Amino acid sequence: MSFSCPHFDMDHEFCMKVRNSCVPGQPGCVLRHNSVFAVPVEERLAEQKTPNKQELRS
């Protein structure tokens, strides 16, 4: 299933409501209380904060 969000800036993959990168379901997101996600939002937020292995090699 897909969604449409009036706060999502498609050009920059940025949420204008929370003023951060778009992670559907994050605190402040309009989808937080009315949607179910296959991967919990906490895991997706943690992935964003952890640099991937390729970035560490640079």
What can you see in these coordinates?
The structure is a single chain. With 58 residues, the chain is of the alpha+beta class. The protein has one domain (8-48). The protein is built from two helices and three strands, in the order βββαα. It has helices spanning 41-49, 53-57; strands at 8-9, 14-15, 20-21. A three-stranded antiparallel β-sheet has the order 1-2-3, with no helix packed on it. The mean pLDDT is 84.
The structural domain count equals 1
Query: What integer value in Å does the Rg equal?
Result: 13 Å
Q: Tell me the structural class.
A: alpha+beta
Ranges with pLDDT <50 over ≥5 residues? Answer: none
**Helicity, in percent?**
10-25%
Key words describing this protein structure:
single chain, 3 strands, 3-stranded antiparallel sheet, 58 residues, 2 helices, alpha+beta
Chart the SSEs and their pairings.
Blueprint: E1 8-9, E2 14-15, E3 20-21, H1 41-49, H2 53-57
Antiparallel strand pairs: 1-2, 2-3
Summarize the structure.
With 58 residues, this protein is an alpha+beta fold.
